[in-house]
Write a structure and sequence with these properties.
Elements (H helix, E strand, L loop, with lengths): L4 E6 L3 H12 L4 E7 L3 H11 L3 E3 L11 E4 L3 H13 L3 E5 L6 H14 L3 E4 L6 H11 L6 E9 L14 H4 L3 H4 L1 H12 L2 E8 L8 E8 L4 E7 L7 E6 L2 E6 L5 E6 L5 E5 L10 H18 L7 H16 L2 E2 L12 H7 L2
Parallel strand pairs: 1-2, 1-4, 2-3, 4-5, 5-6, 7-10, 8-15
Antiparallel strand pairs: 7-11, 8-9, 9-10, 11-12, 12-13, 13-14
Helix pairs in contact: 1-9, 3-4, 4-10, 5-8, 8-10
Length: about 350
């Protein structure tokens, strides 16, 4: 049996507490030897619960002491901390987004070239069985040429955050677009390829956006819309239309997939399984991500989601934010209301 890799978890917020640490603690491939958080009592509480021997309040304390690290810090710290660790020869699995700027992505990718360390990006939806099924369906040409797509993903925000970092522009880099949108755009680019043009609208008004819309023209000839929300429960599915059929896949974990072909009239609906079984919970998906990270280190290969793939969605987000337009809201554009309706509302 191969010796376990020593692993540091840098950042003990909600995703580390609820997913990364429980998954790593049950792994036969890694041993978590240190937890890092600037708020030491939080790190000590988790260390006591999972039997982790050491805690630290500075990520630099792990350099030279571990083989690998999971970086699960606020978004603005992903790039600088990951870069330091890579340059010190530590393999890194960094949470999404890998960085807030493409220039930072380039520095991280260059560090991998210079050191030989592995950089994996936590775009975990690529590990969903349903996402890989969609990829196969499109690549195998079952839908024919792709004509259009429509993605609506929104839920009233209720994630139990450990701090306010996700709600501040300076620490998160954005709102729903950077948080949830990074997953959506990654799947879009992975499934359908690069884009030619994009229009982007949001309600940020100088803060972080809660609602946004994108209209994209892709190089494959397809066009479509992406709508994201933290304030409304939307349809929460992808619809991909091709010449030969239509595929709809729900957003989120273990979703239903609906495939309908035109000529044969075939209709299939169900969950995607592998070896006859569906995933039991989200931790199963993160376990596959961790297993892939470890195998990439041991096999001296690229991980399933390397830095250059993580960069693609960051680049698209950066392009959108640079050309953002205000999302039209009725209370912001009263001229769109009928005069009589507006007049009748006045005292």
């Amino acid at each position: 049996m191969m010796e376990k890799l020593t692993l540091a978890i840098v950042g003990c917020g909600a995703i580390a507490k609820g997913i990364h640490l429980p998954v790593a603690a049950l792994s036969d491939l890694v041993e978590v030897t240190v937890l890092v958080d600037k708020f030491l009592p939080r790190a000590r509480e988790l260390a006591d619960k999972y039997g982790v021997p050491a805690v630290a309040d500075d990520y630099r304390d792990v350099i030279g002491k571990v083989d690998a690290a999971i970086v699960a810090l606020p978004n603005y710290l992903h790039a600088p901390v990951t870069l330091d660790l890579l340059q010190s020869g530590i393999h890194v699995l960094v949470e999404k987004p890998m960085a807030l700027k493409t220039s930072e992505c380039d520095e991280m990718i260059e560090a991998v070239r210079n050191t030989g360390a592995v950089l994996a990006v936590g775009l975990v939806r690529r590990f969903y069985k349903s996402s890989q099924f969609v990829k196969q369906i499109i690549e195998n040409g079952l839908l024919g040429n792709i004509l259009g797509f429509d993605c609506r993903e929104g839920i009233i925000y209720r994630w139990a955050v450990a701090s306010g970092a996700m709600l501040r522009k300076e620490t998160a880099g954005g709102g729903v677009f950077v948080d949830m949108g990074i997953h959506v755009l990654d799947l879009l680019l992975w499934w359908l390829g690069d884009y030619d043009s994009v229009e982007y609208y949001d309600d940020a008004m100088g803060g972080v956006e809660a609602d946004c819309e994108l209209y994209l023209q892709l190089q494959c000839g397809a066009s479509g819309v992406v709508e994201l929300s933290r304030t409304r429960n939307l349809r929460n599915s992808w619809i991909i239309r091709g010449e030969r059929g239509t595929l709809e896949v729900e957003s989120g974990f273990n979703p239903l997939v609906h495939l309908e072909t035109k000529n044969q009239g075939v209709v299939l609906t169900g969950q995607v399984t592998r070896d006859g079984a569906a995933d039991k919970n989200l931790r199963d998906v993160f376990r596959r991500q961790l297993d892939d990270f470890v195998d990439a280190i041991r096999s001296h290969r690229e991980p399933f989601v390397p830095g250059r793939e993580g960069k693609r969605s960051v680049e698209l987000i950066e392009t959108c934010l640079a050309s953002r337009q205000p999302l039209k809201q009725p209370w912001m554009f009263p001229e769109r209301l009928e005069y009589g309706v507006l007049e009748g509302a006045l005292p």
